[in-house]
Amino acid sequence: MNFSVDGRQAFAYTAAHALDPAKPTVVFAHGAGLDHSWFGLQSRYFGYHGRNALALDFPGHGRSEGPPLAKIQEMADWVMRLLDAAKLGKASVVGHSMGALAALECAARHPQRVERIALLGVAYPMKVSDAFLEAARENRQDAYDMETLWGHAPQVPLGGNPNPGMWMYGDTLARLARLAPGVLYNDLKACHEYAGGEAAAPGLQCPVLFVLGRRDQMTAAKSGLAFAHKVPGAQVVQIAPSGHSLMAESPDAVLDALAAFLA
């Protein structure tokens, strides 16, 4: 479904359902260089089980017009403007990686509108290596390769995919190939520079869930756990075989965790 936010087209997948202000809403916020389709299974489930599902494309990603937003705080405020455009008041926000930082900021900056947040594949601080940033700044192919290889657990190339017929490396590379120049660098830089987590964590007023992959090579589970300990009352689910791409590597386990948390 297309919306107008700040005078530009913004897209969110709604599981082919009309939005109903009387229903609870779940917003899905993707990670760096990705788009709404990263949450295909999870957003479809909630859209078909009594909720408004809004799997968004941040500006400059997927079907949303650019330019991309340079700061995590800007992304959080943009999510609220998207809700306004959809004529929806409150929502739970599920974020992955960069989107998890945006979800955190949504709850901190707009507590009256955020009912719950689920943070997937998250760590704080979310620092990015100089080599990765430089490759992305120069729009080199090896930046996409780094995101793909480090974004999955080491066993992924060995097979046993829970989604028959899906090639996880190829799927990620295809998404990244659609990006306009500079978008991946913009996203990585926003994550690298985000410094609001320490202030946001202790003051959160809504329930918080962390979903962490124990084999995550980009946002290590130990870093996610350390951050979870700074959030009062946070729930934590660790998925043993999964890397950073939790929704693709362990789709059912992620869906089970979200369904229990948002029930």
Uncertain stretches: none
Biggest pleated-sheet summary: 8 strands, mixed
Number of strands: 8
Class computed from helices, strands and strand pairing: alpha/beta
Large-scale geometry:
globular
Instruction: Output the number of helix runs.
Output: 11
Radius of gyration: 17 Å
Order of helices and strands: EEEHEHEHEHHHHHEHEHH
Percent of residues in β-strands: 15-25%
| Mean pLDDT metric | 95
Widest beta sheet: strand line-up: 1-2-4-3-5-6-7-8
Helicity, as a percent range: 25-40%
- Report how far the terminal alpha carbons are from each other: 25 Å
Explain the overall architecture.
This protein has helices spanning 40-47, 72-85, 98-109, 130-137, 141-150, 168-177, 183-193, 197-200, 221-228, 246-249, 251-262; strands spanning 2-5, 8-13, 25-29, 52-56, 91-96, 114-120, 208-213, 235-239. The chain is of the alpha/beta class and 263 residues long. β1 (2-5) and β2 (8-13) form a beta hairpin. α1 (40-47) packs parallel to α11 (251-262), α4 packs across α5 and α5 (141-150) packs antiparallel against α6 (168-177).
